[in-house]
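User: Good morning. I'm curious how flavin-adenine dinucleotide would be positioned relative to this chain. Could you predict the structure with it bound?
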Amino acid sequence: MNYDVVVVGAGPVGSTAARYAALNGASVLLLEEHPSIGSPVGCTGLLSTRAVTECELKPSDDFVFNSVRGVFVYAPDGQCLPIDGKQTKAYVISRKIFDRKLAVMAVEEGVVLSLRTRAVGLERRDPKNKIERKISPAPIKLMVLTNGKPETISASVVIGADGVKSRIASYAGLERPTRMLSGIQIEVPYKSKNIDFVEMFLGSSAPGFFAWTVPIDEKISRIGLAFEPSFACKNVHEKSYSLSYLEKFLRSNSHVKARYSGGMLDFVVGGIPIDPPKRTVSDGILLVGDAAGQVKPISAGGIYTGAFAAKIAGKVAADAVLEGNTSAQRLSEYDLLWRKYLGKEFDIGLKIHDYMGKLEDKQLNDLIGSLNTSSILKIITEYGDMDHPSVLMRKLIFSTNSIEFMKTLGIFLKTIF
Ligand SMILES: Cc1cc2nc3c(=O)[nH]c(=O)nc-3n(C[C@H](O)[C@H](O)[C@H](O)COP(=O)(O)OP(=O)(O)OC[C@H]3O[C@@H](n4cnc5c(N)ncnc54)[C@H](O)[C@@H]3O)c2cc1C
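Assistant: Good morning! Here's the predicted structure, ligand included:
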């Protein structure tokens, strides 16, 4: 088996990278270790309208459960900051159907999809070795298990879209994302206050991040939380951290408790990388999506950013193969381009994430209180963007004249610069 580009991992990012490599003239194989696309998947399935557009899908009833126009932000003391975007800002989707649609789009462009195929090793052939050159001109030998049977695939470029625990990163000697949030979520019967809004709960119930409820319909919501392990309470056994936090949140938050009376339809846990490694390419290898830590540190959303980077990865991989140069230097075009468009948002997002994560419950209560004025809410509504938070930050810094908010902002600016 000999392909120009082999993409490992048929999540949303892998399917998009594979499709773009095929669209740009490469022969492409897409591998997925599981027997089914889109399952299992650890995700809330909350996608901004921009994320759906970036994936080149039209929102439709077959994968969109609900449309959301705003968020109720709850401070630890129960104060609620209602942010109403006035129009649809995000969709609550079925990741299973969404992932399948993206895989179908890849196959329609000529990508060969192989399920139950796990990448288990990778070697680079020596380009000066005549015998190796005769066997295959492709510089990479990818070892896989297909239905448990060992096989070898030759590739000019391998794209590692194999998620947060990327094996391709390890095989290629690339660093994996080191900073990780722990996420946990259940799908449950829940009587939503208003299904046009998601709910976000700040404070020590989810140290370093937040808890959420995301309505699928009037009766069912996804309730979850993520936290920064380094901020977590040290007297809980590490493996049970996530579950302990979620159980405590469900027990102690009176708003949630009043709407959820037990039962569970689904349960997921997963790591969320929030700090991309320094390098995402090496000779013949590109990393993309969670494998490259391309997740927004403020919202933990990785689909918009991953799909955006995947398109660049697919095109650069195909161009490099067709030019006959798949060196790290040639492929670094991908690294430069994705950082050019997403790097600043990640940097600013991480600073905001770090600042918010260190606030005590009392400080969070004050912050929410200071934001709860009609002039600030107007700015948030107008410029709030879950994919580009820096736009809102800039606007708030330059437009607000609330003394309370400026005080909070002053502390924030001192912390990050
Ligand atoms: C609790 C939680 C909630 C989240 N909520 C949201 C949200 O609401 N919105 C959002 O945008 N993001 C969310 N995310 C993040 C989002 O799920 C990821 O960013 C996204 O799935 C990344 O896509 P990916 O294709 O890079 O990786 P994945 O979706 O992880 O896909 C990787 C694929 O690679 C396959 N694979 C792995 N190793 C191999 C191998 N060796 N060989 C072959 N195949 C392999 C896996 O089976 C998998 O199918 C959430 C994450 C968590 C944990």
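The pocket of flavin-adenine dinucleotide is lined by residues 8-14, 31-34, 42-47, 118-119, 161-163, 167, 183, 185, 224, 268, 270, 272, 289-290, 295, 300-303, 306 (CB under 6 Å). The CA atoms of residues 142 and 153 lie 5 Å apart.
Let me know if you'd like a different ligand tried.
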